[in-house]
Amino acid sequence: MLHFSNFSKSYGANTVLRINDFTIEPGIYWLHGPNGSGKSTLLKSIGGLLFFEGELLLDCINLKRDSTNYKRKVNFGDAEPIFPEFLTGTEMISLFEEAKNAPAKQVDDLIEGMNMHAYLHEPLGSYSSGMLKKLSLVLAFVGNPKLILLDEPLNTIDQASLAVLYQFIKDKHEEGEISFLLSSHQPLDKQALPQIKELLIDQRTINLFN
Amino acid sequence: MLSTQTKILTKTFASSFFKAHAGFLFFLFATLISYCFFIKTLGKVSPEEATFFNLAITLTILSTPIMTVIFFLACIIYTLKSWQYITLQLQSVQNEFLYYSIAAASKSAQLKSWFIVQLRIFLPILIYAIYSVIVGIAYGYYLHSLFVIFFIILLTAASSWFYVHITNKLNHINNISVLIKLVKNWRKPFFTLYTFYVFNQSKIVFLITKISSWLLIMGIFQVFSDLKNDIRVPFLIMLMVIITHTVLIYNEYRFNTNYLSFSYNFPIPKTTLFFGFTINYFLLLLPEIMWFFTHYSSLSALGITLWGFSLVMLLRSFLYRTGLKIKTFIKTIFILFFFLHFVIMYQLVWTILPISLVLSYVTFSRNYYYKTILE
User: Fold this and answer.
1) Across the interface, which of B201, B369, B371 has its CB nearest the CB of A67?
2) B186 touches chain A (CB under 8 A)
3) What is the three-class DSSP state of A183?
4) Are residues B339 and B371 both part of a single domain?
5) Does the beta carbon of A125 lie under 8 angstroms from any beta carbon of chain B?
6) Measured distance CA(A114)–CA(A127) in Å, rounded
7) Are residues B157 and B186 in the same domain?
8) Strands in B106-183 per DSSP E
């Protein structure tokens, strides 16, 4: 599914990630590693938000050569989302629906489940970090992706919403054959996501963790 | 000896104020240079006469009530700009600590620190004020000179009181401007978001830009009133209009990087991205575009507008190459400004249009996706 070829990411002279030849097969993955190991950097690179050296291919679509097609198939939810404060949650969802060519009301179940209807019409400047995080998670499901990247999805959201999110991930994976890469410091709930596999970032590279 | 509190506040707000507004301050400098450059090139005013005119302008400000009022209005706009900047900075997460550290000091200590911060921010005004006071005293305008000093002290004191007030009051969330509330139900297409941002969070910068732009249009048009049929004049006006708008171009790049970083994951072709964002400049430059269409033939106005847009595109693309490095951006504007002066003088303007468009597209497409974003 996702193939890395001579991938490396540096900040100045400091190389933080080097993945020479590695393939992630379809599935749900918990990406973990110590602080500063490069989890967010890796997800942002896969999402097309950061420059890197080398190649990244999703089902043979090259991010650098065919970025428009690639980005139709990869969605990203930020760890600490920042959106224009004057837009409302509803406007953000419409913006993503348009950009990702998604049908309307595609994420209504998730919005309902996370109890977001009450404030979606409010400007984002009035949102708490938890509300913004929930919105960012909802936006990551908009469109027709094959891979969804969620950076620290457990941060700042309440337990009830978390249960809804787990169920949504599970359903989307089973019904829609969508793969997930979820980065988190905390262990994910293996009862809620029994099929989850682990990826470890250590020593500046990525490995399947048994 | 400044207290640690004053040093922190000065470093956090005064120094960053100048960095953030270097584009605007550069514009003032560039305008001055261009004024001297053109007057000398056309040979209409000798250096002695230019000195005389500068002195005359200062004396006019001191002796004419309307000019004094305009000068004071400019000071008030500058003050409001600094208030807006510091208020926005105080709302950022990295400055939250000030609410429970510096705000715990005595009110008099806080007032004193903020007074010094505001004086530092007033540095360009202070330099001019000192000059005008010296000229005023030399020519006997004692009362006006005293009034200028008193007014600046008053603005500084009011500013320090304002900063102490906002850092000591309990915050409530109400960040949305009246303008944005009015267009609450309007559809906001992705490529126009920056325009909405300008009317929500950058109104004073926009207002100053527009005032400067119109003063320049009127000024140049008047100075060259005997050369109205010379095609170089509207191009010179357009160049000055674009230079005054560089601060908005820089802010657009910053807005895209800070608030629209999620859009780097959008499946939008780069040609659409390249041309899409120009809609903001069409909206923001609409008054100036209208002016060209009412003062020149439609064909000329269209040509001049396209020429101006090619410069906007070029400056935007340079930012995608350099990132948010304000010094590099200012140097680029400076070089471009002088180069284009010669281009206009030697009537080579039309060669710039295709060169500028090709260069800006190549620079953008090479840098947009992977070069500078979030680095």
Assistant:
1) B369
2) no
3) strand
4) yes
5) yes
6) 15
7) no
8) none
This complex has an ipTM of 0.92
* Structural domain of B216: 177-375
Mean pLDDT of B337-363: 90
Q: Is the pLDDT of residue B40 over 80?
A: no
Number of Cβ within 10 Å of residue B18's Cβ equals 15
Smallest Cβ–Cβ distance between A49 and the set B190, B255, B373 belongs to B373
List of residues 6+ apart from A130 with CB closer than 8 A = A156, A157, A158
> Strand, helix or coil at A88?
strand
| Domain stops at, among B146, B175, B204 | B175
pLDDT tens for each residue of B268-299? 998 999 999 999 999 999 999 999 999 999 99
- Whether B158 and B281 share a structural domain: no
Question: What pLDDT, in 10s, does the model give residues B232-266?
Answer: 899 999 999 998 899 899 999 999 988 999 999 99
Same domain, B184 and B99: no
Q: Residue B281: count other Cβ atoms within 10 Å of its Cβ.
A: 22
- Backbone CA torsion sign across A18, A22, A25, A29: negative
The pair of structure tokens assigned to A192 is: 């809620």
Q: Are residues B73 and B56 in the same domain?
A: yes
| Number of domains within chain B | 2
* Domain C-terminal end among B175, B204, B236: B175
Q: Reduced to 3 states, what is the DSSP secondary structure of residue B37?
A: helix
User: How buried is residue B280: exposed, middle or buried, by Cβ count under 10 Å (0-12/13-18/19+)?
Assistant: buried
Q: Give B167-193 pLDDT, tens digit per residue.
A: 887 665 556 677 777 877 888 999 999
3-state secondary structure at position A33? coil
- For chain A, list the domains and their CATH numbers: 2-209 (3.40.50.300)
| Cβ contact B312:B279 at 8 Å | no
